[in-house]
UniProtKB/TrEMBL annotation, chain A:
The keyword Signal applies. Keywords: Amino-acid transport, Signal, Transport. Gene3D superfamilies: 3.40.50.2300. Pfam families: Peripla_BP_6 (PF13458). This is ABC transporter permease. CDD domains: PBP1_SBP-like.
Automatic annotation (TrEMBL), chain B:
The keyword Transmembrane helix applies. This is ABC transporter permease. One of its GO terms (biological process) is amino acid transport. PANTHER family: ABC TRANSPORTER ATP-BINDING PROTEIN, BRANCHED-CHAIN AMINO ACID TRANSPORT SYSTEM PERMEASE PROTEIN LIVH.
Length: 407, 295
């Protein structure tokens, strides 16, 4: 009897010790993921609250725990400002035991947080920001760029447009780092395909009246007016181009960064026929439809942008990395994330893989906006005309200026 | 081809015309602000939010009531004015005896709350609002393509501004209003209900913002922040024109719109700052503004 009790007690002790060891591998006995995004400004529809919902879904789908350790979410509004973003990131890492920061729309905010994360050896999962700087000069061993970037947008849209005969281009460019980067990437692709650049005008950011810039684009005689801007600036450019008879006059618009939320705001009547590149569309297959409908139910019937789906995909992959690494040490988790296959319920990241520079390379899609008659209702907006293989869409690794890439 | 500042004159005419159209919005909004400041001594920082509300009333009326643009043009200013009158009666009227700063802070806070509510309800991307069928299309003027709707905006704005100016300067009601600004106690002694008149003035000023919102809806994206992007420029216009000067704000609105239009061709990067540079210069040389009286 005594012997049995002793064995029982020994077993129990061993189990407790083992559990304690498992938990110690994750500091503070919990995993905390910070969603840092624009919750009130111009990008709060394409990213914003929807990305918090997406991250919550990722945690639920993973079972709420990593090897028995609970996962929590914190969120904050960086107001698209680099200084606010970096001070929140510092506070989260230093005093609130945050293990990773995800989403990060707006290049300036993403770069600021990247520097803090790199310094602290923490993981960042960039979804909403566009600039290729994140996988070049600003790359980090624990930093990932998940959803899209300016190179992929330019390679997708500009390639297709030039091949369809749109040889001469004029740019309307938002006058800040992102706009300049997007214009430069697009010019590179246009020229490589034998196209010609007629000129560009840099408009203030944000701006509401584009008629003056559109008139300059019109008198340039270029076949294609490339919109190297985003959000409300793109919406207003497209709306006013129609008003001034630019599209009816034979010139075409190429929206270089267009989200489904922009199309919803424009209406199909105005946006029809436009070509763009996207990393995700809700109505591609059963998987994307099922995931998007779950997200939609929590978001008053809206449909997810690529940033929403990308945030889900990046967070669930991070959780897989944590589970495989059996620790929350940033470097070890990052190694596991690079090694593990990328697949999740959102249907995002088809043929996805993570490169040494932190770029998550995956298939992109060339989409054309439907005519009003072709659409069955709200959010039925895109025809996917081509799947662009990841290696074709993104900057080749050999061209990366990231110092983590072995040359 | 003839050129001016290195730009073909035809293109220059086009840009001046576009500037005039933008100036129409500056004029309408700064007129309302000047009116409210002149008679109430309130710096109405919620003017941008009220402009946004005008555009949203148009969109809501179309979406939920099927009311077209012309109905909205009447409905929106009435709705926005009613809202303004409630604000004036419940909050602003308590501040007249205090420093300007209190009115500014209150209306600024209100603007943030109103914009926050709309953002919560409708998101940030904005809502589509089509140009009314009667005003669709455009004219080819040779030097540019002028959308009929833009021409309509200029005409509507000129009529509104001129009408308001006549009302204030040439009618008996306007005379009462001006008198009440100078000496409310004396005017009240003559049996005129000054508080009601002030309330209606605020309602009228705000209604102008509401109309401007409806006029803007088919051109700009109807979104909760559309007013906050514009209001700072409009304040600069009022300051340059002279606080409280009705004619000043209208003329300055159109003039600065054209100046901004020119800047967009000559050096586009400065387009968003040129008005503020003018403001600095005017404040240094003539602190009361171009049309202002006294300091």
């Amino acid at each position: 009897m005594l012997k049995k009790a002793l064995i029982g007690a020994a077993c129990l002790t061993a189990m407790t010790v083992a559990q304690a060891q498992a938990q110690q591998a994750y500091s503070d006995n919990k995993i905390k993921i910070g969603i840092l995004t624009d919750l009130s400004g111009t990008y709060s529809d394409l990213a914003g609250k929807g990305t918090i919902i997406a991250a919550q879904m990722a945690i639920e789908d993973f079972g709420g725990k990593v090897n028995g350790v609970p996962v929590e979410i914190v969120s904050a509004d960086h107001q698209n400002k680099a200084d606010i973003a970096s001070s929140i990131a510092r506070k989260w890492y230093d005093t609130e035991q945050v293990d990773a920061i995800a989403e990060l729309v707006t290049t300036a905010a993403a770069v600021a947080v990247r520097e803090v994360s790199k310094e602290k050896g923490k993981i960042d999962l960039v979804s909403g920001a566009a600039s290729t700087a994140l996988t070049n000069a600003k790359c980090s061993p624990t930093g990932f760029h998940w959803t899209y970037d300016t190179a992929a947008l330019a390679n997708g849209t500009a390639n297709a447009v030039v091949k369809n005969g749109g040889k001469s281009w004029y740019f309307l460019t938002a006058d800040y780092a992102f706009g300049h980067d997007l214009q430069a990437q697009t010019e590179r692709v246009v020229k490589a395909n034998g196209g010609e650049i007629k000129g560009a005008v840099r408009h203030p950011f944000p701006n509401s009246d584009f008629s003056s810039f559109l008139l300059q684009a019109q008198s340039s005689g270029a076949q294609i007016i490339g919109l190297a801007n985003a959000g409300a600036d793109t919406i207003n450019s497209i709306k006013q181009a129609k008003e001034f008879g630019i599209t009816q006059g034979g010139q075409s618009l190429a929206g270089l960064l267009v989200f489904i939320t922009d199309i919803h705001s424009l209406g199909l009547d105005t946006a029809q026929g436009m070509m763009m590149t996207t990393g995700y569309y809700w109505d591609m297959d059963d998987e994307t439809r099922a995931w998007s409908k779950r997200w939609s139910a929590k978001m008053d019937g809206k449909m997810p942008s690529m940033v929403h789906a990308g945030t889900y995909s990046s967070v669930i992959h991070y959780l897989k990395g944590l589970a495989a690494a059996k620790t929350d040490d940033g470097m070890k988790v990052a190694d596991q994330m690079r090694a593990l296959p990328i697949k999740d319920a959102s249907g995002f990241a088809k043929n996805g893989k993570i490169r040494a520079d932190g770029r998550m390379v995956h298939d992109m899609y060339l989409a054309q906006v439907k005519k009003p008659a072709e659409s069955k209702g709200p959010w039925d907006y895109y025809k996917i005309t081509r799947t662009i293989p990841g290696d074709e869409a993104y900057q080749p690794l050999a061209d990366s200026k990231c110092d983590l890439v072995k040359k | 081809m003839m050129t001016l500042f290195g730009i073909p004159t035809a293109a220059l005419f086009g840009q001046l015309l576009l500037g005039l159209i933008n100036g129409a919005f500056y004029a309408m909004l700064s007129l309302g602000l000047a009116l409210i400041f002149g008679l109430l001594n309130i710096i109405n920082f919620s003017h941008g939010a009220q402009y946004m509300m005008g555009a949203f009333v148009a969109w809501l009326a179309l979406t939920y009531l099927g009311a077209n643009y012309w109905v909205a043009l009447v409905l929106a200013p009435v709705a926005v004015a009613a809202f303004g009158i409630v604000l004036e009666r419940t909050m602003l009227s308590r501040l007249y005896k205090l420093d300007h700063l209190y009115g500014l802070l209150l209306t600024f806070g209100l603007a943030l709350i109103i914009e926050g509510i709309f953002r919560q309800l409708y998101g940030i991307s904005g809502m589509p609002y089509a140009v009314p069928k009667e005003l669709a299309g455009g004219w080819n003027l040779g030097f540019m393509y002028l959308p009929i709707y833009r021409a309509w905006v200029v005409v509507a704005s000129l009529v509104l501004c001129l009408g308001t100016w006549l009302l204030i300067e040439k009618t008996k009601l306007g005379a009462y209003l001006r008198a009440a600004t100078e000496n409310p106690a004396l005017v009240q002694a003559f049996g005129i209900n000054v508080p009601v008149m002030i309330t209606l003035t605020y309602g009228f000023g705000v209604a102008l913002a509401g109309i401007a919102g409806v006029l803007a809806a088919p051109i700009y994206s109807v979104n909760p922040l559309m007013g906050s992007n514009l209001i700072i420029v409009v304040f600069a216009v009022v300051v340059i024109g002279g606080m409280g000067s009705i004619l000043g704000s209208v003329v300055t609105g159109f003039m600065l719109g054209m100046l901004e239009g020119l800047t967009k061709v000559i050096y586009p990067e400065a387009a968003s700052t040129v008005i503020f540079m003018v403001m600095v210069v005017v404040l240094l040389i003539k602190p009361a503004g171009l049309f202002g009286k006294g300091a």
